[in-house]
Automatic annotation (TrEMBL):
Keyword Acetylation (UniProt): no
Annotated protein name in UniProt: Fe-S-cluster-containing dehydrogenase component
Keywords, ordered alphabetically: 4Fe-4S, Iron, Iron-sulfur, Membrane, Metal-binding, Repeat, Transmembrane, Transmembrane helix
Annotated GO MF terms: 4 iron, 4 sulfur cluster binding; metal ion binding
SUPFAM superfamilies: 4Fe-4S ferredoxins
Organism, as annotated: Desulforhopalus singaporensis
InterPro entries the record matches: 4Fe4S_Fe-S-bd (IPR017896), 4Fe4S_Fe_S_CS (IPR017900), FDH_Electron_Transfer_Unit (IPR051555), TAT_signal (IPR006311)
Keyword Lyase: no
Domain 4Fe-4S ferredoxin-type: 41-70, 139-168
Transmembrane segments: 270-292
Gene Ontology cellular component list: cell envelope
UniProt xrefs under Pfam families: Fer4_11 (PF13247)
Top-level taxon: Bacteria
Length: 314
């Protein structure tokens, strides 16, 4: 009897544990609300290894044929300029930038690489009503300037404030951002230029799911070195660029308030209005302009007729 009771108890406990595990796993999946793309590639950025050499910037500059920077890539005075003020952002001349941070809890600086994070569920793509963006099977979010109408909705939608607008060309203004070296490297099974150029192996390229396992292994085996968080695993529904840090991410410029679900879920009602606004307002304003122009012509004609009549009376 005791054996039977013991077995029943163990069976109940086992079933209870299994049910709890299934419930927790389902709850976790629901709370993150992300899709899985097993073949998508990505980059793991280990900020504890980055020394701020800006080799990645130089490689990107050469690969994308961007203009030479105002300061050479080996001029570290650039970091001092933004140490206590605003940090550098990507723009038409810089598809990736390195910023320096000095967290108070450690005795050395940390360097953060910034570029398009190539989201799993890109808000830029979802918000673009002309389909100027494409998510490739390799994970890159690429942009087609020939389709873009310049509405800049993607700049509003992006939670990381990455897409920039090129104002320097009046004839060909367009959105600019990192393309993950897709055309020149990624689709030819080559490493992105910034990854290949990193001398410290702070950038690791590979399948995103495998990179997450590597990141978890590093955290698990060196808890004194890393905070227990992989930035980009869940943020905004997951990104192709993943980060490890030795301090909390808000201390190195990351937005830690971004929800763990695609941004479009939060802004889809607003973005749904964008095509309507872009469709209705231009012709509406054109109508206002034509009406005003017609009134101006009518008033000019009336004045001319009055002058002619006055001349006849004289």
């Amino acid at each position: 009897m005791k054996t039977q009771t013991s077995r029943r108890t163990l069976l109940k406990k086992g079933l209870g544990s299994a049910a709890a595990a299934i419930f927790l796993r389902a709850k976790t999946a629901r709370s993150h609300n992300i899709k899985r793309y097993p073949n998508s590639c990505g980059v793991l950025v280990d900020m504890t290894r980055c020394i701020g050499c800006r080799s990645c910037e130089a490689a990107c500059n050469a690969e994308q044929k961007l203009p030479s920077p105002a300061l050479p890539f080996d001029d570290r005075s650039l970091f001092a300029q933004g140490r206590h003020g605003s940090k550098r952002r990507t723009d038409e001349n810089h598809f990736t930038v390195i910023n320096r941070y000095d967290p108070p809890e450690i005795d050395h600086p940390l360097f953060r690489k910034i570029q398009c994070n190539h989201c799993q569920e890109p808000a830029c793509l979802s918000s673009c009503f002309v389909n100027a963006y494409t998510k490739t099977p390799e994970g890159a979010v690429i942009y087609n300037p020939d389709v873009c109408v310049g509405c800049r909705t993607c700049m509003i939608a992006c939670p990381f404030y990455i897409p920039a607008f090129r104002y320097s060309s009046a004839l060909h203004p367009q959105i600019v951002k990192c393309q993950f070296c897709y055309e020149t490297r990624l689709k030819n099974n080559l490493l992105p230029a910034c990854v290949e150029a990193c001398p410290q192996e702070a950038l690791l390229f590979g399948k995103r799911e495998k990179l997450i396992k590597i990141a978890r292994h590093r955290i698990r085996n060196d808890r004194d070195r890393y905070v227990d968080h992989i930035y980009g695993e869940y943020e905004a529904g997951g990104t192709s660029w993943l980060y490890l840090s030795s301090v909390e991410f808000d201390q190195v410029g990351f937005d830690t308030t971004i929800p763990h679900e695609p941004i479009l879920n939060s802004v889809k009602n607003f973005l749904a209005m964008v095509p309507m606004v872009l469709t209705i307002w231009p012709p509406l304003f054109a109508g206002f302009h034509l009406l005003a122009a017609r009134r101006a012509r009518a008033e000019k004609t009336r004045q001319e007729n009055n002058r002619e009549k006055a001349d006849e009376d004289v």
